[in-house]
Design a protein that fits this description.
By secondary structure, this protein is an alpha+beta fold. The chain has two helices and eleven strands, in the order H-H-E-E-E-E-E-E-E-E-E-E-E. Strand 7 and strand 8 form a beta hairpin.
Length: about 200
């Protein structure tokens, strides 16, 4: 009996270590992708960096979340090499928004990493910008109190608007929705985030 309990203990410990190792590697990959000039130069063009924080919990999509959440994150926006439409005043472009941050709710915290392809509409210099996108996110924890997001993978939908403040600095609003879209059953609940966003354009 003692041997079996010891075996279960070591298996649980090994599982926890493996989960921590996986998330540690994901974080390193994310940081390396965002900060590596080589990857940005050869694959995508780094357009802007932003920081954002949730300011409202008003639900727009799905059911009301039973828990209250806070999210603080940083994002890097990489422009794809193709541009559907560019004129002397307006431009329609495509980009990839990658982000990492902290999600807090019901006394619990989670690391959130996301990658969301987007279509943008804005002025030719991108000082005024609208964006819309859909992608995916990974949560290091998906249960917060009575709320269960369903699993570590979440679909992510976003809409944002940014206006210039001073030179390369901008301020904007971002809507962000996380949900498993029912992949893990009907008892899961997503959450909506209304966020203020400060950005710096390169």
């Amino acid at each position: 009996m003692t041997a079996a309990l010891n075996l279960m203990h070591w298996r649980t410990r090994d599982s926890e270590l493996s989960v921590a190792a996986v998330w540690g590697r994901l974080l390193l990959i994310f940081c390396g992708f965002c900060l590596s000039p080589l990857s940005a130069a050869e694959i995508l063009n780094l357009e802007s960096l932003s920081i954002r924080a949730r300011i409202s919990e008003q639900t727009l999509l799905g059911e009301d979340a039973p828990e209250n959440f806070e999210e603080y994150s940083v994002a890097a926006n990489y422009g794809f090499p193709w541009q559907p439409y560019v004129s002397t005043r307006w431009a329609v472009r495509t980009r990839l928004m990658v982000s990492g941050g902290l999600l807090r709710g019901a006394g619990e915290s989670a690391l959130v990493i996301s990658a969301i392809p987007e279509v943008t509409l804005g002025t030719e210099d991108s000082r005024f910008l609208l964006d819309l996108g859909a992608g995916g996110a990974l949560f290091s924890r998906h249960r917060f109190g009575v709320q269960d997001f369903g699993g570590p993978f979440q679909f992510a939908l976003t809409f944002g608007v940014s206006v210039p403040v001073y030179e390369s600095l901008g301020v904007g609003y971002r809507f962000l929705h996380y949900s498993d879209a029912g992949l893990n059953g009907s008892d899961t609940t997503g959450a909506d985030f209304h966020m203020i966003e400060f950005s710096y354009r390169f």
